[in-house]
């Protein structure tokens, strides 16, 4: 029989786990956006050597599981004399994985801007920076929003594997309670609710933002 007393008693544990999930996710996403912007800029600018390094990074990041990357950071780096906390490994791991996905989304947005628009801006007397800030970037952001929001949601869901390096996120809490009390249904319910509370507002906000930019483009 479903035990609501168990749910009400251990719900605060999931609140704490949700805070940890949000903490590592926010910093990991910020890092991934920064990495994505740099990589997309290098690819669009076609900078020799660097563009090949970026492509290698993107392929390596997207074709290896986050769990493997976390194990390398948490268990492998200490062998090289580099010791990071579980939180630092989780943030860097999410940033490393997310950076490649963000780079592809942002590059796609930048590539949708026709060269004729840049050339027209130069003819009108705009500098390269003014052309980027007033012509290229606003349109690229509008085009990239769906991909970026999807990647944000993807990274938050991927953060569930950080429990493998003993980080007390919501997934860790669920597995811990199931292992100790065998209250599978109650723990999974709280886990689902926790992720819905985190992800649903982001999804709704992303949908609103996408429609807002589409309306302004018209």
Please explain how this structure is put together:
By secondary structure, the chain is mainly alpha-helical. It is built from eight helices and no strands. Helix 1 (4-45) runs antiparallel to helix 2 (50-62), helix 1 (4-45) packs across helix 4 and helix 1 (4-45) runs parallel beside helix 8. The longest helix has 42 residues, at 4-45. The protein is flat, with a radius of gyration of 21 Å. The mean pLDDT is 90. Keywords: Amino-acid transport, Cell membrane, Membrane, Transmembrane, Transmembrane helix, Transport. Belongs to the binding-protein-dependent transport system permease family. HisMQ subfamily. The chain crosses the membrane at residues 20-45, 188-209.
